[in-house]
Amino acid sequence: MRLKGKTALVTGSTSGIGLGIAKALASEGANLIINGFGDAAAIEAERAALEGLSGGKASYDDADLTKVDAITAMFERADADMGGVDILVNNAGTQFVSPIEDFPVEKWDLILALNLTSAFHTIRHAVPGMRRKGWGRIIGTASAHSLVASPFKSAYVAAKHGLVGMTKAVALEVADAGITANCISPGYVWTPLVEGQIPDTMKARGMTREQVINDVLLAGQPTKQFVTVEQVAALASFLTRDEAANITGANLSVDGGWTAA
What we know:
Shape: globular
Radius of gyration: 18 Å
Oligomer: single chain
CATH superfamily: NAD(P)-binding Rossmann-like Domain
């Protein structure tokens, strides 16, 4: 297995895209640190399954990524238990849909903290160890909203644009150290995050559930299909390969053609 001996930290990985990426990396032999919230029994089942896939170690860290001290402690545990982080996937995120004049300030602060600022802290902790080893992979789960905007998503659009910009800057800083830094920007993937924003979008736009799915979520994707978790995870896995060593500073779209227009 080509990632045997490497350790991957995937934030926001107890479900959805993050868990899919964790599974893809585990299937290549990587040790995993998963992070996020959810039912304790379900998380333990996924952790054990990851060990079965990799034949290595998998741990769960419940760090609250909106808290700087919690992120620092998570990396201290990763260093002590796993020998550091070789692959960092900044996937954690949340969403809220509202007109700007009604957008709750606390929701803005939460989205920026989780979707953007947490990635700044994870990257700054991961890079020194990657430099020492002369190898590292940093991957951000951005969004088609890192390239284009949609109404009622001011905080999310701002955060995803920021994540891509920061990741590009990091790519330039670490380009001579055997480290790559890229973003993947999916279109709409059927995940709990997407499903959860449907009621708010129904309210904001005065639409039915079916109208939101067909006329909002899939309206901009020419394929008229949701992107799958497995498709995003496969691209993340490829970015860890030696063949991807010269792909850095990129923002790779997986959006059914949404941003091609």
